[in-house]
Amino acid sequence: MTGSLEGRVAFVTGGSRGVGRAIAEDLARHGAAVAICYRRDGDAAAETVAAIDAAGGTARAYQADISELTDLEGVVGATRGELGPIDLLVNNAGVASRGNDVADTDPGEVARLLAVHAIGAHHLCRLVVPEMRTRPRGDIVMISSIAVDKMSGGGAPYNMAKAAMEALAHTLAKEEIANGIHVNIVAPGVVATEMGNRLIRATLGIPLAELDERTPLGRVCRPEDVANTVTFLCSEQASYLSGQRLAVDGGWRDATAL
What we know:
The protein is of the alpha/beta class and 258 residues long. The chain is 43% helix and 15% strand. The two termini are 35 Å apart.
């Protein structure tokens, strides 16, 4: 698919590190100009932009709090001014739940996770969809989680937020299919990132690497596994796909060891 996204402008939230960085780099590798939206780590965002530039791609970094509408309006406008109309949006930014039972959960945590995963994603879709309708093709990819399949205890704010994000995706896919906008969901399992390692240490008390031998395919998900799936969904090879949910979990949903 080399060059398959040439001429397109992608906007990736949470694009400075981990899964977001892998997505940004892969989209750029296939020809898209990429806007990397980040909240705090400006150094990491700059490193990602530098890596894309060094590989011959085009990228810019923009700081915004996904939960703040005025921030989103500013970075979408800046992207249009520097890179052009956005026709590929990846809602990847997210925060983890603290792992408490519902009875012990701070109400502020519920509001914060819904604001980042679902409400912020809604704001971004609302901002970019009208312009996407005028483009030859539009793509919106939501990065969800197999947590929605499991609905495990101790993670209600995260489960609720990701489920709401998926509801947005399925609704938007129906609304925009006639306008040539493809809306799909990618739902990874635990991913080998800094956040993934912290999660496994907190919940299982072991390093994430120790899970490799306990997974059906012999390793946990890598950021590149998610990125490859996103790029495929936005390519001509997936031109007949919309409203789909791809679980990038190596069979974890059916695994009994976890």
